[in-house]
Amino acid sequence: MITLAGISHHTATLKVRERLTVSEEDAPLLLQRARDHFGRGAALLTTCNRLELYLGGEHEAAEVLAFFAQATSTPTETVDRHVRVRHGAEAIRHLYGVASGIDSMVLGETEVLGQVRSAFSRTVKAETDDAVISRLFHTAIRTGRRARTETAISTHALSVSSIAAQQARALFDDLSRATVLVIGAGEAGQLAAQALAAHGVQDILVTNRTFAHAEALANELEGQALPFEDLADALASAQVVVSASASPLPLVDAAMLRGVMERRDGAPLLVVDIGVPRDFDPAVRDLPGVAYRDLDDLQAIADRNAEARRSEVEAVQAIVDVETVRFLDWWEQLQVVPTISALTERSEALRRAELAKTLRRLKVSDEDRAHVEELVDVLTKAVVKQILADPIHVLRERGDRDVYLDAVRTLFRLTPPGAE
Predict the structure, then answer these.
(1) Range of weakest confidence among 64-68, 159-163, 202-206
(2) From 48, 276, 325, 394, active-site residue
(3) pTM confidence score
(4) Pick the CATH number of 160-308 from 3.40.50.720, 3.30.530.20, 3.20.20.60, 3.30.70.20
(5) Cα end-to-end span (Å), the chain
(6) Among 368, 305, 375, 290, CA closest to 152
(7) How buried is 98 (Cβ within 10 angstroms: 0-12 exposed, 13-18 middle, 19+ buried)?
(8) Residue ranges in 172-312 assigned as alpha helix (H)
(9) Annotation says 48 is catalytic
(10) CA angle 7–13–16, rounded 5-degree value
(11) May I ask the CATH class of domain 2-154?
(12) What span, in angstroms and rounded, lies between the C-alpha atoms of 382 and 402?
């Protein structure tokens, strides 16, 4: 049915995972080689924390691991130690869990669902999808959506950037009218500003001791760069400040911010200080109108949110289990259909053959023959239908279908599926 070979943060360190990577350019060729080697559909899921190859059909672990090592140019001993092979329901349940965010390093992350979609799109473009792979990824995407709409697995922010956006949204109803000031031109400030922009912020100011760096980041964020000397004015005009300057000393002390707040006519200010060391004197926390959050505050929020997400895992797992059963039911029906078709076709062929022999022996006039043929045809069709009704019902309904499928094929001398 399904075979999965994969490595992730659960099975290997970052150093090992860095050695088992497949570029976007190399992925189509790997998929086509997998299809040709195993003779079935193939899909490749790649993220920063995992590399997983999905194959249609049941394949021996040793063969799959050998292919994995050769395809990724990785020593066999490394692959054998860190790559896990799963089959059938276990592989299905794993992908559904990945799409739902409960297998991620950051529990409940949303990005992985898009990566599952991209994996299937890559498969289609490489022409390595088949009915089973297509069904698997379509239902994985559906499961991921259900997990996020029917549970709260993704509603509590965990990353610094997302928590910053969450805090801003809690203080300001309409972020599209808010001005965000980014102090520092590093990656941390950029990520936080991008998260705020995703929540509707349109006016972004950037300042940095090196103005050229401020300009570069402002261009990326489609914002405006300000000279560092204008920091007080920038603070007075902003509603949200994200600061990550890497300065060894605080850039803003309580006296400076007190003067800024006096110019704001009571308008509140959110300061998200993610600098290490901190860019703002912690004493600003006590100033009226200032909501100050440093990394310790954000970590405490992340811990509470992580606990809230963990409480949702059981609900998500229930969805994963239901969807896994649905896939297995579809698969079993897929296996039953060829046998039912072969049974009905063989019965119909026997009926027609016996009907022809019987009609040849009947001594009736040409005038009555057509009428007799019609009556006997209707009669024999009804008899065959009644005889097959219970066997077909059992094939469709019984859980231990493999036993019944084999029995029917043997009893009625049906050609096994796939045989010439």
Answers:
(1) 159-163
(2) 48
(3) 0.66
(4) 3.40.50.720
(5) 21
(6) 305
(7) buried
(8) 187-198, 211-221, 231-237, 254-262, 295-310
(9) yes
(10) 70
(11) alpha beta
(12) 28
Distance CA 37, CA 70 (A): 12
In which element (H, E) is residue 323 found? Answer: helix 313-361
Burial of 411 (0-12, 13-18, 19+ CB in 10 A): exposed
CA 368, distance to chain mean position in Å, is 68
Omega into 28 within 30° of 0, i.e. cis? Answer: no
Distance between CA atoms of residues 52 and 50, nearest Å? 6
By CB neighbour count within 10 A (0-12 exposed, 13-18 middle, 19+ buried), where does 237 fall?
A: middle
User: What is the DSSP code (8-state) at residue 239?
Assistant: S
Tell me how far apart the alpha carbons of residues 308 and 297 are, in angstroms, rounded to a whole number: 17
- Sequence letter at residue 82: H
Parse the chain into domains and list their residue ranges: 2-154, 160-308, 328-411
Q: Identify the CA nearest to 261 among candidates 297, 289, 239.
A: 289
10 Å CB burial of residue 118 (0-12, 13-18, 19+) is middle
Token pair, residue 248, equals 């060894």
How far CA 415 is from CA of 142, 332, 339, 343, 384, in Å, comes to 36, 18, 9, 10, 20
- Residue 53 has which token pair? 């190859």
Cβ count within 10 A of residue 184: 25
User: Which tens digit of pLDDT belongs to each residue from 327-385?
Assistant: 998 887 777 777 888 888 888 888 989 888 888 888 777 778 788 888 888 999 999 99
